[in-house]
Amino acid sequence: MRVIKAQDILNAVKRLAIEANYSLPEDVANAFEKAIQKEESIVGKEVLNQILLNAKLAKEESMAYCQDTGVAVVFVDIGQEVSIFDGYIEDAINEGIRQAYTEGYLRASIVEDPVFERKNTKDNTPAIVHYRIVKGDKIKITIAPKGAGSENTSRLAMLKPADGYEGLKNFVIETVRLAGPNACPPMTVGVGIGGNFELCALLAKRALLRKLGERNQNALARKIEEELLEEVNKVGWGPMGFGGRVTAVDVKVEMHPCHIASLPVAVNIQCHANRHAEIEL
Ligand code: SF4
What we know:
Elements: E1 2-5, H1 6-22, H2 26-38, H3 42-61, E2 71-79, E3 82-85, H4 89-103, E4 128-134, E5 139-146, H5 148-151, E6 155-159, H6 164-179, E7 187-195, H7 197-207, H8 219-232, E8 248-258, E9 263-270, E10 277-280
Bound molecules: iron/sulfur cluster.
Iron/sulfur cluster (SF4) is lined by residues 66, 68, 70, 147, 149-150, 184, 271-273.
């Protein structure tokens, strides 16, 4: 058994949450650089330039890339040969988030009761944590702050097998069409296919963690990614919804076996603030 201290998890979460909010990942910035070449609209090109300038300034000045610093979504892959010492892992994660958002001047965006009082928790906790037990003796932590503009446009459908690939494609394209400027494009479109109701939503979210431009190893998923990317870019929203060719910089698909009578599909829309940072302890 390898022992990892809860304090080390706390410190890692704090550092990652600040890093994710201040610096856009390199693959995302590269995708926007390429998009400038592809975009034909003059306004669209200018928007992409502004997005890149914003990313540069946020990093240089240690400021949030976007004012919506989002829900702190945390993915934790725990090796089955790890023992966590001196604290409960979820307390350590939430304390790391609390310190990052208060000391890093990141907006607190979480309300306690979602329907009535909607009182701000003031420190962006609680985080939303997804655990997975994996082989080995390490812990991998990924933090992906998720803003509400794009999250609110995400959708899930329990399609029937008879809806087939056409039904699936139409649902994804319709979701991008309905999302429009509210999702702050250029988007990355995460698509979960299969599993059941809750798993396909999680697949769609996990799909967003893969590097932009990197295709799924599964040939079917790869084909869907390539076709959907072409189709969603025909919708024509363009950068920030001003019209253009680049509505999405990528589509990421994750698939899982499902019930004989189901075809679940979830679309998690990611805005241009495609933020994430990870570490292995
Ligand atoms: S949708 Fe994304 S880019 Fe737009 S305000 Fe929210 S976090 Fe920022």
